[in-house]
Design a protein that fits this description.
It contains five helices and twelve strands. It is of the alpha+beta class. The chain folds into two domains: 3-131, no CATH class; 142-271, 3-layer Sandwich (Rieske Iron-sulfur Protein). The longest helix has 29 residues, at 43-71.
C-alpha cells in the first residue's frame, strides 16, 4: 500500500477509537434512569445505605411505640432508643464527591480517558513528524555524494560509463564532457553540470525516477543507458529520452562543488528538460537490458 493509503487508514482507525471512547465514557456517566450523577455509588455503598434506611424505619417505629406507652401504661410494647449515629443532637456531616472518593466506575472511566488521550498524543506527534519538513539531511536537502576526483574514477572507466548510485539523493552520478555543453539543451541550465573545470569532464546527477509513472530506472551497462523495467522507457547515459512512453528526459538535480572538493547534489532543485532533438552521446552502444 502507498503511504497515502496507510495514512488514511490510520485516520479512520483513530476516528473509530475516538467514537468508541466517547460512547463508553458517556455511558459510564449515565444512571439507569438516564440521569447523570456526580457521585456514582458502588454495590457496597448501596448496601450500607439500604441498611441505614432500615435502621431509620426501626427507630421511627420505636419512637411511635414509646409515645403510645406514655399514653397507656398498660401497653407491653418495648421502647428502643434510636442509634447514636442518628441522634437529633448529633449534626449530620455532608460528604463531598472528593471526600467520598473515586468509585470503581469513575476509576475505569478516567483510565479509559487517559489511555485514549495518550493514544491521541502519540498519533498527533507521529502526524507532526510526517508532515514536518526535513530541514537537515535527507531527500530534498543538499546531499554530499563524495569527492569529485573519486567519483570521476568510478563513473568513467576506460571510456565506459559506470553510473554511481547515491541512495540518499535518489540519484545516478554520471560523467559529462564539458565540450558538449554549449551545443546541448543543457547550455540553458549549466548548473546541472559541475567539476569539469580542470580536465573537461563534469558530473551530472540524474534522478533515478522514471518520468513516465515513477518507477526506479536502473542502469544498463551493455547499452550504455538507463532502461525502465516497468514500461520500457529508455534513456541514454546522459538521461536523454530514446524510446518508450516517457514524455521527456530523465529529471536531474542542480549540482555544485564545495570547498572540500565534494560534489553536492541539490535534491531540492529538480530540473526538467524536453526530449532532445539530438543526442549528446550515442545510444544504444550495445544490447538492451530490457526487451
Amino acid at each position: 500500500m502507498s503511504p497515502t493509503t496507510i495514512f488514511i487508514l490510520v485516520l479512520v482507525v483513530a476516528a473509530v477509537i475516538a467514537v468508541i471512547g466517547i460512547v463508553m465514557v458517556a455511558r459510564g456517566r449515565t444512571d439507569a434512569d438516564g440521569t447523570t450523577d456526580a457521585v456514582q455509588l458502588d454495590r457496597a455503598a448501596k448496601k450500607a445505605d439500604k441498611s441505614r434506611r432500615k435502621s431509620r424505619a426501626a427507630s421511627a417505629v420505636a419512637v411511635s411505640a414509646n409515645a403510645t406507652t406514655d399514653q397507656d401504661p398498660s401497653s407491653s410494647v418495648a421502647v428502643v432508643a434510636p442509634p447514636a449515629e442518628y441522634s437529633q443532637d448529633k449534626p449530620k456531616i455532608e460528604v463531598t464527591a472528593d471526600e467520598y472518593g473515586v468509585t470503581r466506575r469513575r476509576f475505569f472511566g478516567r483510565a479509559l480517558g487517559a489511555v485514549f488521550g495518550l493514544f491521541m498524543l502519540q498519533f498527533a506527534l507521529a502526524g507532526l513528524a510526517f508532515f514536518w519538513p526535513k530541514l537537515r539531511g535527507g531527500f530534498g536537502t543538499p546531499i554530499k555524494a563524495g569527492t569529485v576526483k573519486e567519483l570521476k574514477a568510478e563513473v568513467l572507466q576506460a571510456g565506459v560509463v559506470i553510473p554511481k548510485a547515491i541512495p540518499a539523493a535518489q540519484a545516478w552520478v554520471i560523467p559529462f564532457q564539458m565540450e558538449l555543453l554549449d551545443d546541448s539543451q543543457f547550455a540553458e541550465v549549466p548548473f546541472v553540470v559541475a567539476g569539469g573545470e580542470d580536465d573537461g569532464v563534469g558530473l551530472m546527477a540524474l534522478w533515478h525516477r522514471c518520468v513516465h509513472l515513477g518507477c526506479r530506472v536502473p542502469e544498463c551497462i551493455p547499452s550504455q543507458g538507463f532502461e525502465c523495467p516497468c514500461h520500457g522507457s529508455k534513456y541514454n547515459a546522459h538521461g536523454e529520452y530514446a524510446q518508450g512512453p516517457a514524455p521527456r528526459n530523465l529529471d536531474r538535480f542542480a549540482v555544485s562543488v564545495n570547498g572540500s572538493g565534494e560534489l553536492v547534489i541539490e535534491t531540492g532543485t529538480v530540473v526538467q528538460t524536453a526530449r532532445a532533438k539530438q543526442f549528446t552521446i550515442p545510444y544504444p552502444q550495445g544490447p538492451f537490458c530490457v526487451g
